[in-house]
Amino acid sequence: MIRIENLTVGYASGNNTRTVAAGLNASLHSGEMTCLIGANGVGKSTLLRTLSGFQSPLAGDIYIDGKRMNSHTPSQLSRMISVVLTDRPDTGNLTVEELVALGRSPYTGFWGTLKDTDREIVRESLKQTGIEHLASRMIGSLSDGERQKMMIAKALAQQTGVIYLDEPTAFLDYPSKVEIMQMLRNMATGTDRIIFMSTHDIELTLQIADRIWLMTQEGTLHVGTPRELSDNGSLSAFISRAGIRFDTDTMSIRVK
Ligand SMILES: Nc1ncnc2c1ncn2[C@@H]1O[C@H](COP(=O)(O)OP(=O)(O)OP(=O)(O)O)[C@@H](O)[C@H]1O
């Protein structure tokens, strides 16, 4: 389990501190897919980067299985947490299989030499994400959806109990969004992982996520199942405005 306690996230440089969200409390549970939603600029990426260890909290704590995150070494963390970002990988000159194999680097030592078991894990990761047929393709030739599946395969090859993803469904057509979200949900439940992803695909989130973290403009966090956040009015407050209404009965968005 991951737990955040009184977590404050933001940016500090020199004497300047920019707090993005403060006093956040929430948990992520194994076997669940949790979606992080909120308006542009509320701090979803900032929170994900902080949970991933790419930037330090301004205050508060992150616990992994009851132990403070900063008590683990980077090498230990790389066997616990994998992170999928939306940026295009800048290593263009690799095949899909070679890139997915980079997911094994926490286990393969300095030279990255793969053993038979590593190759088997890479093959299995390609299979689970349905991209075995792309194994020898150059990564620069992939479509957005194929690249996203490849990055998820790399995270799977890393064999961590926690996978964080920053907007994995951005730029995808609707069926591909559904496919990726269902795949991630099945991974969470089927392999007892923690899957935590940011997304703007609210209606899909309401149908597929086990739990939602809703970040507000005020820098607070509402946490609950889609039904709970619908019933307590959090989703209406986030979605409803002139011309848009959130229907709590059907948990869908109505445009007038
Ligand atoms: N390096 C930085 N230094 C200072 N402020 C930053 C930095 N990066 C982002 N911010 C600011 O932090 C706030 C939160 O940004 P963040 O990217 O986390 O939002 P987001 O919810 O992920 O947005 P979006 O949905 O548009 O991707 C924004 O006001 C942004 O301008």
Question: Could you explain how this protein is built, in words?
Answer:
The protein is of the alpha/beta class and 256 residues long. It is built from ten helices and twelve strands. The strands form three sheets. The protein has a six-stranded mixed β-sheet, sandwiched between helices. The chain has a four-stranded antiparallel β-sheet with strand order 2-1-4-5, covered by helices on one side. Strand 1 (2-13) and strand 2 (16-28) form a beta hairpin. Helix 5 (116-128) packs across helix 6 (144-157). The N and C termini lie far apart (41 Å). The chain binds adenosine-5'-triphosphate. Adenosine-5'-triphosphate is lined by residues 11, 18, 20, 38, 40-46.
Short précis:
34% of the residues lie in helices and 27% in strands. It has 256 residues and is α/β, with parallel strands linked by helices.
Q: What are the salient characteristics of this protein?
A:
P-loop_NTPase; 6-stranded mixed sheet; alpha/beta; membrane; ATP-binding; 34% helix; 256 residues; binds adenosine-5'-triphosphate; 10 helices; iron transport; Siderophore_ABC-ATPase
